[in-house]
Write a structure and sequence with these properties.
The complex is a heterodimer of chains A (about 240) and B (about 250).
Chain A (H helix, E strand, L loop, with lengths): L11 H12 L4 E7 L5 E8 L1 H5 L17 H21 L3 E7 L6 H8 L8 E4 L4 E7 L3 H18 L7 E7 L7 H17 L5 E6 L10 H13 L9
Parallel strand pairs in A: 6-7
Antiparallel strand pairs in A: 1-2, 3-5, 3-6, 4-5
Chain B lengths: L2 E6 L7 H14 L4 E6 L6 H4 L8 H7 L8 E4 L2 E4 L6 H4 L3 H14 L5 E6 L5 H9 L2 E6 L3 H18 L4 E8 L2 H19 L4 E7 L2 H9 L3 H4 L4 H16 L1
Parallel strand pairs in B: 1-5, 1-6, 2-4, 2-5, 6-7, 7-8
Antiparallel strand pairs in B: 3-4
């Protein structure tokens, strides 16, 4: 006699839902990993000290009093992050996201101006809420993201008197993760929440997956590098 | 303080050593005091391109602590060479301590020079990476062919990803025309920008020139033996560009 196994048991959506239900009973947060077409490919579990401290139910961390960003800005931010995550998938380079909680007494334009000199050419700084700035660091590994965060925090502390308490959460993903922008933001938010429970000026960061293949030249890169030969096949003129 | 400029390529055989020697000669001809370090520690070629018979090399410094000042070879008033050994696998795989010792030693002899050029080995081995990390400027040489372009791209990607180097200058060698050099640079820049967010600088192109191969066989710099040839003129322009950044 054979036991019939329901096809539903092989459905990733069903499997992930079941695992997420189990995770809710533990101090864990679950993040969905997806492929390029947003199909679920895996689950990422992260220990959540906030859930641990409150008996595994609700977070005891007082949420920052923040005003959500206007929908059009949120869409723009998600769109930028989607572009950078797509680029990371093509290049095999990591992508980092910094969420920085700024002091209550300061205005977003002032902070942006202070942060600006610390950023590199392709970094993208956007308001995330009225008290949190988000900085996308394309092609940046955890060490570069940490260095940039420290530089920004030092610049803010130097510019504002008395020296404010700033907290930061950093998430770095490698292409193997294939995270959705929403999941990536959620991970960075969780790091920022962890930083809020830590000592003054705490920085919490998380790196998802390993960077083993981060330097490998991809098929897409090669294809673009060689495109010049297709374009120049007929051009054989030499300088005199 | 001397400007340290690393010359690398990823792929071997793209003319790196020949160009390093000739660029050094061109820089020296402008009055700059130039030291050319053979950074291909296990398979050195600078001494061969210059027709030198050296008895002491950087191997003596690393293994016996010999003062590198006693190894220096004077090519002309403003141009000195620090030769390396050939056929010594141990030199191609220095330990972390040996690397640190060598860098400190090289810092010690940099006084008195305006520009230090390092001709590194091909590939993405340890010595290539730490010489490039140490340098102030990184020149990457490539030729207009798929293998050289891929290897140059891979080297840049590794230096950016693992060593946070972001300032690269591209030299396109063996081009059939100025336009080809500029086209290759333009396309290469687009790929670097699109995939790894890098904007390289163009340091120049060197055309195909029969004087180059002749000079290598005669073991002399073409910039000296054929100063008016197209390759020498191109090297002269590249030297001027290097002076601007140093």
């Amino acid at each position: 006699m054979t036991k019939k196994i329901s096809n539903r048991n092989h459905d990733p959506e069903h499997i992930f839902q079941e695992l997420e239900k189990v995770a809710e009973k533990f101090p864990l947060r679950a993040f969905r990993l997806t492929d390029d077409d947003h199909n679920p490919t895996g689950l990422y579990f992260k220990y959540d000290p906030a859930k641990a401290g409150s008996g595994g139910s609700k977070s005891h961390i007082p949420a920052a009093e923040t005003v959500p960003i206007p929908p059009e800005s949120a869409t723009e931010f998600t769109s930028l992050l989607t572009t950078e995550l797509d680029r990371a998938a093509l290049s095999h380079l990591p992508c980092s996201l910094i969420l920085l909680q700024i002091p209550d007494s300061t205005q977003m334009p002032d902070i942006s101006a202070i942060c600006w000199p610390c950023l590199e050419q392709f970094d993208l700084l956007k308001p995330f809420t009225d008290k949190i700035i988000a900085i996308i660091l394309p092609a940046s590994n955890p060490s570069a993201a940490l260095k940039r965060t420290r530089a920004i925090m030092a610049a803010i502390k130097k510019a504002i008197s008395p020296s404010p308490d700033i907290r930061a959460g950093i998430a770095t993903c490698h292409t193997a993760n294939a995270l959705s922008p929403a999941a990536f933001i959620e991970i960075a938010e969780q790091e920022l929440n962890n930083a809020r429970t830590g000592s003054p000026s705490a920085i919490h960061n998380v790196t998802l997956a390993s960077p083993e293949d981060a330097c490998q030249v991809t098929v897409e890169e090669r294809s673009q590098l060689f495109s010049i030969f297709k374009a120049n096949d007929t051009d054989d003129n030499e300088d005199e | 303080m001397a400007k340290i400029i690393c010359i690398s390529s990823g792929k071997g055989g793209v003319g790196k050593t020949s160009l390093a020697v000739n660029i050094a000669a061109a820089l020296a001809s402008t009055g700059k005091k130039v030291l050319l370090i053979d950074g291909d520690l296990g398979l050195a070629n600078v001494d061969i391109v210059l027709g030198l018979n050296v008895r002491h090399t950087l191997r003596d410094t690393v293994e016996e602590g010999r003062d590198p000042a006693t190894i220096l070879v004077e090519i002309s008033k403003n141009f000195k060479v620090l030769p390396a050994s050939s056929g010594v696998p141990e030199m191609a795989n220095l330990s972390y301590e040996e690397q640190a010792f060598l860098i400190e030693t090289l810092k010690g002899i940099s006084t008195g020079f305006d520009i230090i050029l390092i001709d590194t080995a091909a590939g993405i081995g340890d010595s290539v990476l730490w010489f490039n990390t140490w340098a102030d400027e990184n020149i990457i040489i490539l030729t207009p062919d798929p293998t050289a372009m891929t290897d140059a791209y891979a080297l840049i990607k590794v230096l950016k990803t693992r060593h946070e180097k972001t300032n690269f200058r591209l030299l396109i060698n063996n081009v059939k025309s100025t336009k080809e050099g500029q086209d290759v640079f333009h396309n290469f820049s687009l790929v670097l920008d699109k995939f790894i967010h890098l904007t390289p600088h163009y340091i120049g192109e060197v055309p195909r020139d029969t004087h180059v191969a002749k000079a290598i066989r005669r073991q002399e710099p073409f910039f000296i033996s054929a100063p008016d040839c197209r390759a020498s003129q191109a090297v002269s322009r590249i030297a001027s560009n290097i002076i601007k950044i140093s």
